[in-house]
Amino acid sequence: MDLLSNKWIVNLLVCCLFIGVGCNSVEKKIYVHLNYTVPCVRLLNATHQIGCQSHLSGNVGVLHVLESEENVDWVLRSGPNPPYLVILESPLFTRSIMMKLKNGSSRVAGVAVVAPSANPLEGVSPHTTCPNENTGVYTENYDPSLAHCNVTVWNPLGSGLSYEQFDFPIFSLKDDNDTQVIRQCYMDHNRAVNGSTPQYPLCAMQLYSHMSAVTDTATCMRRNDINFSISPEMVCDPLGDYNVWASTRPINNTAKGHKMWESVVIAAARLDSRSFFFEVAPGAESGVSGFVTLLAAAHALRNATQEAPPNRTILYTFFQGETFDYIGSSRMVYDMQNNNFAVDLDNVHSVLEIGQVGLRADSRLWLHSDPVSRKNDSVNAEVRKLIESLQTAAKGLNVSVNEPGFSQPLPPSSFQRFLRARPIPGVVIEDHQSAFTNRFYESMYDNAEYLNISYPPNLTPEEQLVFVTDTAKVATVVARALYIQAGGAESQLEGINADPQIVTRMLYGFLIRSNNSWFQQRIPPDFMSHLSKPTNFYVGVAQQRSELTHLVQYLLANLTGSTNNVASSLQMYSYVWVQGAAPPNSTKREGFCVRSTVRLSKALSPAFDLRDYTSKNYSTWTESRWKSIKGRIFLVASHDLEVVDRVRAARFAKEILITIISVNPDLFKVLFGFSPFLYCVIFLFVHIIGLQSEKAQSPPQRDLPSPTENTVHKLLQTALL
């Protein structure tokens, strides 16, 4: 290689170095990246897909702040610079507006919703009016009159927005500095003044949330299976996690299936929740109120079940994935039916489920039961006993416990999956007589504020942690009722009381700040980095155990287990090392080993084990994978100016190719390993792009001279030598 070629290579490398160093700072000058962006993602089931996505390169639109529903027509019809990326304040994030934007999606590039700092006054629920309508017990075969919420519409505020499919990205933006920058950019560049049309440059936003999966679960799982690459790229994953369970007496978990002489009372609660946006699922009333109540009840029963053990075993079960067609409970029932769980359905005596129990001022609990199974005399008799046990347990606690007083089906509950298998006595405890009292069911507003969890001003986080509120009454009712139902003596009830401070600490930890000293003392040292603020209750995908599952597992072990530094039978007990507290005047924690009966069991829909991706009996929900989730704003030039820039860029690239080939045709081969034929093809491709860009340009501009056809012909001949 001659000296001239070496100089060219050195110069080219120096140019690349300067370009690489400078491009990052240039990008920062052009774009403002958004720090807090939460997308709506794509989910799929046996029949269709729901959720949102962007194009592969992101969706770009001119910003428009929607000020009222009447302003939607401007976006969809008369706005001069479509497509638009619409900014919505939360009161305008309604089904009416979103369906209008969906139907006019050719002029809509995306939507960004500004999350409010306080809950709205009116109820909001993006879920359906009849949750888990097709996977509960109430089918046409069970009782047609009770199917499809014919008797009681449980969630009358449900808009069904979470189950719509949108062909553009929808993000939630935190109302912070980013939002202020967006508003200011819109006011400075996009807002019409005195009816005049805004002039370029205009403020624009780009949202990235391209989803890999399409159509339905069967399609995406098939694509997962036929990927022939060395490192296959999956396009979707089944929703799932792990159920958490424990028993008041140790049960041999190695020997699966029926246990002779064993009778269990299942005490159940669901763990997960959801909202329209990915991983924004506070679930305060819909989920947290129930499972915190059950955790506190389990702790209240620890001493009583050891000192005066009842005849039956109480099985505490915390189900994951219940929001998505009862993933966790259907899996446990399936495992019991197939001798793959510690007990089977023949061992189940009865079920007591704790649902939404975020008590309001009236302190009323309602006891729901199944009218169909109660037509069986033996089932009805046991249900009556369980109701009487609950009423006995509530005496002296200032809590009203009653049946609804009319015939209606069970509300959405895990117990329904047990009834699909066989008639089992059971009761579901709720804070509503018929329709939900929860005005924010499965929405971003079902949070600590809605549960009235508040603290006096000026308290530090640690002072808030120990600030006791009156929230333990329901847990005491549940604990006492479970003890009676398991065969315990009523004379022991006075000593069974939930600890108000523990209930308060759990509510604070799950809804306000999980990274607190009380949680830290009850988890293993290697789990510290997983504590977030606040906890996310979305079930996630089956390949990973969620932070919530870990926390419930460790808390249940601490609340029901005992300190033990000598491991005994692993078949009967589980062991976990927790980091404990630091003594006064010391920073070193004193860890200890906790022995308990806490176990995990798979919460993955049986449909995926059976490879029945169109199942009507089990959940088939999957979550699409994606590459990147991000958003940014910038100033966009007019279309004509963009065409001019593309023409200039194409010409510049063409001139570089011509110059390099003119000096030394071997240069490309040295740098890239291309054959002469390939770089001729590259040259022609760039030349054609330049010609097409020139045709698209209006008016044509000739500020960069082009080589003649003879010059091009000679250069190609040289390249082919």
Automatic annotation (TrEMBL):
Protein name: Nicastrin
Lineage: Eukaryota, Metazoa, Chordata, Craniata, Vertebrata
Gene3D superfamilies to which the protein is assigned, alphabetical: Zn peptidases
Protein family: Belongs to the nicastrin family.
Domain of life: Eukaryota
Annotated ranges, domain Nicastrin small lobe: 39-213
Keywords: Glycoprotein, Membrane, Notch signaling pathway, Signal, Transmembrane, Transmembrane helix
Residues spanning the signal sequence: 1-23
Compartments where found: Membrane
PROSITE patterns (UniProt xref): PROKAR_LIPOPROTEIN
CDD domains, per the entry: M28_Nicastrin
Matching SUPFAM superfamilies: Zn-dependent exopeptidases (SSF53187)
Annotated GO biological process: Notch receptor processing; Notch signaling pathway; protein processing
Example of a GO cellular component annotation carried by this entry: plasma membrane
Topology relative to the membrane: Single-pass type I membrane protein
InterPro entries recorded: Ncstrn_small, Nicastrin
Pfam families from the UniProt entry: Ncstrn_small, Nicastrin
Transmembrane segments: 670-691
